[in-house]
Design a protein that fits this description.
The chain is an alpha/beta fold. It has helices at 5-19, 33-40, 58-71, 81-93, 113-122, 131-138, 184-196, 212-221, 236-242, 257-264, 277-280, 295-307, 309-326, 329-340, and strands at residues 27-28, 46-47, 75-78, 98-103, 125-128, 148-150, 170-175, 201-206, 228-232, 245-248, 269-272, 288-290. The protein folds into 2 domains: 48-154 and 328-340, Glycogen Phosphorylase B (Rossmann fold, 3-Layer(aba) Sandwich), CATH 3.40.50.2000; 170-326, Rossmann fold, CATH 3.40.50.2000. The chain has 14 helices and 12 strands. The chain is elongated. 36% of the residues are buried.
């Protein structure tokens, strides 16, 4: 139901492939954000709610079999484990040429009997959006390694936003779901350190999620209401235009679109050196990587960065170089077309 990086990728990919003249169909949950955006773009999605036990539901299996036969599919791209369990056998029986599983998380696939059957027999190819995601696929099932292609999330480099100079009060921003893994509690600790140093700053946290109340309570407890703002849902463009520096305190996470967009907006970036962050940020080149959970060092890095125009300009210049070298959307979509044999 939610709108995140994976849903955004499927939406943008669907639009791109359709623009190239291909017949594109989507199966999603009725009323989801993805379904709404597809409808607004003149797609006609098919609806099916998929859960952990859908693969043993005969009605859903018959419904999908009839749909796939009617559409005469060449390829299917799946997004999650429950989809793979349900669709894999159906696609295999229908002899669909490409059954692709796109994986963005860094948790290794467990080598259970069912997983071995699904991923070795029914999934023809994997897409990983980072090196860490790739390793998570084959770590426990080595034979899958040859099936994996890394296709990074792409960024459109045609429209590069104008630079905004940093003011005397630095605005530090993070955008993401308010969940424990994204490490927003670390930003409260960072704010305490910066406040004790009497630095002029605000930390803006955009997004919603189950950690909202806990974060609000901590902000009030630490007397940081003037320094730390929870903004709720904000458009990425508006958010990135409003902040000076981006910070990513995630404990573990796949390669996230918002970090790429921060580079597009040429925002100096500080992040914990966790998960796939070092695939986007090269320390000292287009940002700073901090040892995980070291909030004192993160605060010091933010303080130093906010006061050095020379370092800011260096990071801003190099941010576009990184995007062009590794995350150019045109190149990423070309790699996808090659995988799909289009």
């Amino acid at each position: 139901m939610a709108w995140g990086d994976s849903e955004k990728w499927h939406y943008n990919t669907s639009k791109y492939l359709r623009s190239k003249g291909h017949s594109v169909h989507n199966v999603t949950t009725h009323g989801s954000e993805l379904s709404k955006k597809l409808l607004n773009s003149n797609f006609k999605p098919y609806y099916l709610k998929v859960g952990g036990f859908s693969y043993i539901n005969p009605i859903k299996k018959i419904k999908l079999t009839k749909l796939f036969s009617k559409l005469n599919l060449d390829s299917i791209i799946l997004n999650c484990h429950n989809d793979a369990k349900l669709v894999g056998l159906i696609a295999n029986n229908l002899k669909i040429k490409k059954v692709i599983f796109r994986r963005v998380i860094n948790n290794p696939i467990k080598p259970t009997r069912r997983n071995l059957k699904i991923y070795k027999r029914y999934i023809t190819d994997f897409i990983a959006n980072s090196r860490e995601a790739k390793r998570s696929i084959y770590k426990n099932i080595r034979s899958l390694k040859s099936k994996i292609s890394i296709i990074y999330n792409g960024v459109d480099l045609h429209e590069i936003p104008r630079l905004k100079p940093i003011q005397s009060k630095v605005i530090i921003g993070n955008l993401g779901r308010l969940v424990e893994q994204n490490g927003h509690i670390n930003l409260i600790e960072v704010a305490k350190v910066l406040k004790n140093k009497e630095i002029q700053f605000e930390i803006h946290i955009a997004g919603t999620g189950p950690m909202k109340e806990k974060l609000n309570t901590l902000i009030k407890k630490e007397d940081l209401s003037d320094e730390v703002k929870l903004l709720g849902n904000v458009e990425n463009k508006d958010f990135l235009n409003s902040v000076d520096i981006c910070v990513f305190p995630s404990l573990f996470e796949g390669l996230t679109n918002i970090m790429l967009e921060a580079q597009l907006y040429q925002k100096p970036t500080v992040a914990f050196n966790t998960a796939s962050n070092n695939e986007v940020i090269t320390h000292g080149y287009n940002g700073l990587l901090i040892p995980p959970c070291n909030t004192n060092l993160m605060a010091s890095a933010l303080d130093t960065l906010s006061k050095s125009n020379l370092v800011q300009n260096w990071f801003q210049k190099n941010s576009l170089n990184i995007l062009n070298e590794k995350f150019n959307q045109k190149r990423m979509t070309s790699k996808l077309e090659e995988l799909l044999e289009l």
